[in-house]
Every structure is written in C-alpha cells, then in structure tokens.
Amino acid sequence: MNIVVLCGGLSPERNVSLTTGAKVQNALVERGHHAIMADLFMGMELDRTPEEAFAMATEPAEVAAIAEAVPDLEAVKQSRKGGTGLFGENIIKLCRYADVVFMALHGGDGENGRIQAAFDIMGIRYTGSGYLGSAVAMNKSMTKQAFLSDGILTPKGLRLKKGCDAAGICDAEGLSLPMVVKPCSGGSSIGVFIVNTADEFRNAVDEAFKYEEEILVEEYIKGRELTCGILGGRPLPPVEIIPKEGWYDYKNKYQPGMTVELCPAPITPDEEAAIRDATLAAFKSLRLEGYARMDFILTEDGRPYCLEANTLPGMTPVSLIPQEAAAVGMSYGELCEEIISLAFNKGE
Ligand SMILES: Nc1ncnc2c1ncn2[C@@H]1O[C@H](COP(=O)(O)OP(=O)(O)O)[C@@H](O)[C@H]1O
Ligand SMILES: [Mg+2]
User: Which of the listed CATH numbers 3.40.50.11010, 3.30.1490.20, 2.40.50.180, 3.40.1740.10 matches domain 156-219?
Assistant: First the structure.
C-alpha cells in the first residue's frame, strides 16, 4: 500500500508527533508498505511524481528521541519555505495519491478535527476518528458535558473564561482545593497544574490562560492513574502509570525511565471491567472511530473517573497503546496494520 505517515505540524506536541511518525513509518516499511513520513506543516520538496516518490519509499526514516522541552513553534513557522496555510508544500498532492494517510499528528490542528474535515472534503482516506469526534474529544469541557449526559463518571469541573473571577466562581459552585487547572484543548500535560493553595490556584489560572481563552478547573481526584486503549471497538488491557517522582507531567510522559508502567495493570477483575466498560462508553459517547485511549484516575473504592479521551494517542517507543497491544500478543507493526485496516471500514 502507498501510505503517507503525517506528523509534525504546528502543535506543542510537534516533537512527540515526529517520533510517532518515524516509528510508524519504520514499522510500515518493514511490513512491505511504501510509506512516506511527511511533516504536515513543513511539507517536502518533490522533484518527481508522487507515483515515483512512493515507489522509492522503502527505506526507514530516522527515529529521533523526543526533546525534553516543548518546541519553539515561532522558529518552526519562520523556517518554512512554501505551502498553503497549515499544509506544507506537496502534502496535499502526496496525500491525494496515497491509499491512506496514517495520522501520526498529536494535539492542535492534527487532533482537533480540522485536518480530518479537510480530508473528508478532499476525499482523502485517513486513520482514526472523524472530524466531529476529534473536535469534541479535543475540548475537555465539551468532553465532560458528553460524559455527564451519558452517565460516564468524570471529575466535577467548571469552564472558565479569561477575565472571570476564577476563585469566586469556584467558591460559588462548591469546587474547593485541591484542584486541577488545565487548558480546555491542551495535551501532554502542557499547561496542567495540580494546586493545593489559593496562591498556586491564582498562578495556575494565569498560566493556563496563556494557552487558551477557556480553561477547565476540576476537583482533584485522589487515586491511581490508569489509561485504557480501545481498538476497533474492543478495549485493551489497562496500564497503570506510576511516575517515580511527582505527577504525570510532560517530562514524566516522554523521557524514558521516568515513569513505571504496569501492563496489564495490577487491579482487581471488577476494577478492570469498570475501566473497560467506561472506555467503551466514552468511545461511543464521543462518536470516536478506529482507536483511542482514555485516561482515568481510579479511586481507592474502585471507581474510575474518566479524565479525557485521546483520539490520536502517542505511538512512540515509550507510548502506552503499543504496550497494551503487546499484552494481547499484538506487535507494534500489527497494531499499525490494524489501525490502517480500521480506516477502510469506517461507519460499518
Ligand atoms: N481531576 C484530576 N485529578 C487528579 N489528577 C488529574 C486530574 N486531571 C488531570 N490530572 C493529572 O494531570 C494529567 C494530565 O491531565 P489530562 O486531563 O489527562 O490532560 P492531558 O491532555 O494533558 O493529558 C493526568 O494524567 C493526571 O496525572
Ligand atoms: Mg491525558
């Protein structure tokens, strides 16, 4: 098959995506596909036809480690030569020619449904969720509303607009410390703060508003952290996440060795069933397709609070979905292949 592995882009998770993209491209080439890793925003020079480019796309791309810092997106913007809007040079041309586009983008415009909507209009086949599910899942406040209306347990939360009296609103609504402050459409724990004091709360609100005009403030749920992938409508075994220090922030997510991940998670059969049921319910509630990964906090009394859904979960060497797939005997390459085959059966 001719496949574009689309990655990079202009989101703060750009570097994570470049690593996912290279890993996926390597796996697909190894399995005999003709796969081109392409940076959505930067595009690529093409001195041959797409047909010729795919014919030559049999070499693995280099897999780079994820830099510890979030990338300087202004510098990325400045360094581009050609392209239209978010689409770098030749991206649309290559995607149109491909049998399928493997969406290796994370965060921002790769994950929020805008690229998916553009591809629908252009008749380009892609992996994962469509535009609507992607858009709703990208916004943690909209996600919460969908969860509440479908009876899915989620932390109590409030959406705040820039300039509001954040502390006053939380008081009035009975939301008290400790709390979690996060941008509505963020990812990778960027801009997420766990706060214990009024001072910390004020600073966190100011910081979170640097990312977006709307933020979410949630009750802090004390418990174990778990995440559960779902592939083709079937939940995978949950993983328990135990950061060696602190909480599951950007560094602990992407620097190898910072976090202990136990898969399958050492939880009771009842707890596992509750997490799998909630994962499937969340998948349906948000109208997701193909695959996804839901994040949970499991309380001591066995109740899983769903924090959010990730519609394009990481596929880096330290990512969670590949570990969950391995626990059911599925290799990384088979997982990529399955994600692609689900893209050919959408809506069935
Ligand atoms: N309500 C909460 N209670 C406890 N911990 C939370 C809560 N919300 C977020 N966290 C912590 O912050 C991390 C990131 O939050 P999450 O909502 O999953 O956003 P992101 O899209 O950045 O992953 C979680 O993995 C968890 O460690
Ligand atoms: Mg998360």
Answer: 3.30.1490.20
As residues whose CB is below 5 A from the ion ligand 2, the structure lists 295
How close is the Cα of 75 to the center of ligand 2, in Å?
A: 27
Output the CA 154–ligand 1 centroid distance in Å.
11
Number of the ligand 1 atom closest to the C-alpha atom of 253: 25
Domain ranges of the chain: 2-126, 156-219, 222-343
Does ligand 1 come within 6 angstroms of the Cβ of 272?
A: no
Amino acid at 309: A
How many whole angstroms from 192 Cα to the centroid of ligand 1? 7
With the most atoms of ligand 1 within 8 angstroms of its CB, the residue from 156, 176, 192, 251 to mutate is: 192
Give the three-state DSSP class for 347: coil
CATH code of domain 222-343: 3.30.470.20
CA angle centred on 288, ends 192 and 35, rounded to 5°: 90
Kindly report the pTM of this predicted structure. Answer: 0.94
Using DSSP, state whether 83 is helix, strand or coil.
strand
Distance, CA 341 to ligand 2 centroid (Å)? 26
pLDDT tens for the chain, residues 1 to 348: 999 999 999 998 899 899 999 999 999 999 999 999 999 999 999 999 999 999 999 999 988 777 777 889 999 999 998 888 899 999 999 999 999 999 999 999 999 999 999 999 999 999 999 999 999 999 999 999 999 999 999 999 999 999 999 999 999 999 999 999 999 998 788 899 999 999 999 999 999 999 999 999 999 999 999 999 999 999 999 999 999 999 999 888 888 889 999 999 999 999 999 999 999 999 999 999 999 999 999 999 999 999 999 999 999 877 899 999 999 999 999 999 999 999 998 754
Q: Where are the alpha helices (H) located in the chain, listed in sequence order?
A: 14-30, 50-56, 73-78, 91-97, 108-111, 114-122, 131-138, 140-149, 166-172, 198-209, 250-254, 269-285, 320-327, 332-343
